[in-house]
Amino acid sequence: MDIVFSQVDHCYMKGTPFEKVALKDFSLTIPSGSFTAVIGHTGSGKSTFIQHINGLLRPSSGTVQVGSYVIKAGEKKVNLKGLRKEVGFVFQYPEHQLFEETVEKDITFGPVNFGLSKEKAQKRARELMPLVGLQEELLSVSPFQLSGGQMRRVAIAGVLASRPSVLVLDEPAASLDPEGRVNIMNLFYDYHKTHQTTTILVTHHMEDAAKYADQIIVLHNGMVEMIGGRELIFERVSRLNEIGLDLPKSVSFLQNIKKKFELSEVPMEFDVKG
Ligand code: ADP
Is 202 in the pocket of ligand 1 (CB under 6 A)? Predict the structure, then answer.
């Protein structure tokens, strides 16, 4: 499902001395089935932005459209349950959201809550275990007996179990070592490719944005500073530097980029000495 923001503003604590405009005149489209990366400094509005996609936050003005769901500023009646079934959220440290007695109960909680029979939800849980890199035997154990990495995979399976059409990932690989990060990111990328899930990744890692995303959105001071394909990274390097978003200068990053865009030369700005 397409996601369309039309002239959206979001203001926290409106009318108080602490009033803060966190999104200004936000207009953008995230095409159905795309993989979009959202980058920007802390405070640039990333989390305010993504929380509009499942109605956790409402626009102060403007309209957010997610498929057939329309959320207009000031409108009270929104079918949030339907929207939240369609939009899966993986927050930072999703393992903190585990609470059930067993892994199976945690994974099936979402789909059962959305009306799926227990048996069908359990079947989904069994199918998801290998997909998230866990052994099926773990379904019967307490999630709190697992390692941190395993807990995160259980939490991810719990989000995927509702088969969302849109997946919002807020730094899903936060605090993982490089290998763990690649594993988790590949898991989401494979899932996206297999199910054509519209995927929105909030990340501080330019490498991940360049590696996985078809579309990149750069936020700055609550505004859409840039939006476009990955090649945008090359076209506006100096502006990215100006707003403090430095690109990694590692040789492997540059080689990957070169390969990805089939460039014979790395643009001048990327030239690394030695
Ligand atoms: P990011 O996710 O890019 O770090 P946020 O969307 O969290 O950015 O924040 C955007 C701006 O809104 C920041 O200035 C932040 O301080 C402010 N903000 C975020 N949440 C709240 C809140 N609940 N109340 C007031 N201001 C907030």
Answer: no
The position carrying tokens 């490089």 is: 178
CB atoms within 10 A of CB 239: 14
pLDDT tens-digit profile of 40-63? 999 999 999 999 999 999 999 999
Q: Closest Cα partner for 207 from 176, 227, 225, 181?
A: 181
Amino acid letter for position 4: V
Q: Is 48 in the pocket of ligand 1 (CB under 6 A)?
A: yes
Percent of the chain residues past pLDDT 90, beyond the cut: 69
Output the pTM of the full model. 0.89
User: How much of the chain, in percent, has pLDDT values that exceed 70?
Assistant: 88
Give the right CATH number for 3-230 from 3.40.50.1000, 3.40.50.300, 3.30.110.40, 3.40.50.2300. Answer: 3.40.50.300
Cβ 203 under 6 angstroms from ligand 1: no
Contact 36, 217 (CB under 8 A): yes
